[in-house]
Amino acid sequence: YQRRVHGDGPEGRFCPAKVYEWLEDDKGETNLSISAGNCLHCKACSIKDFGQRIDWRVPEGGGGPAYADM
Q1: pTM above 0.70, yes or no
Q2: What is the mean pLDDT of residues 8-34?
Q3: 42 closest CA partner among 69, 11, 64
Q4: How many Å apart are CA 21 and CA 5, to the nearest integer?
Q5: Would the pLDDT of 13 be above 60?
Q6: Closest CA to 10 of 57, 46, 35
C-alpha cells in the first residue's frame, strides 16, 4: 500500500504529467516515485528545478514529440 504525499518536494508540484510523485508506504516512509512513461517532454522539470537535480535528456530513439500546430 502506498499513498500520495503532498509537499515533500517541488517535483510533485511542477510536473503536469505527474512523473514525480512522493508516496508514503505502509511503514510511513516517504519515497520519490518516478513514472517516466508519463513524461510529456515539456521540460518543466528542467526549467523549474532551480537546484538542477533533475538531468532531463532526450529519450532514446528521437528528439521528443513533434507537435504539428505549435
Answers
A1: no
A2: 81
A3: 64
A4: 8
A5: yes
A6: 46
Give one DSSP letter per residue of the chain, joined into a string: -EEE-SSS-THHHH-TT--EEEEEETTS-EEEEE-GGG--S--HHHHH-TT------PPTTSSS---TT-
Q: Is the pLDDT of residue 26 over 50?
A: yes
Label residue 24 exposed, middle or buried (CB < 10 Å: 0-12, 13-18, 19+).
middle
Q: Give the HSE-up count for residue 22: Cα atoms under 13 Å, Cβ half-sphere.
A: 13
**Which residue is listed with cell 526549467?**
47
Q: What is the mean pLDDT of the chain?
A: 75
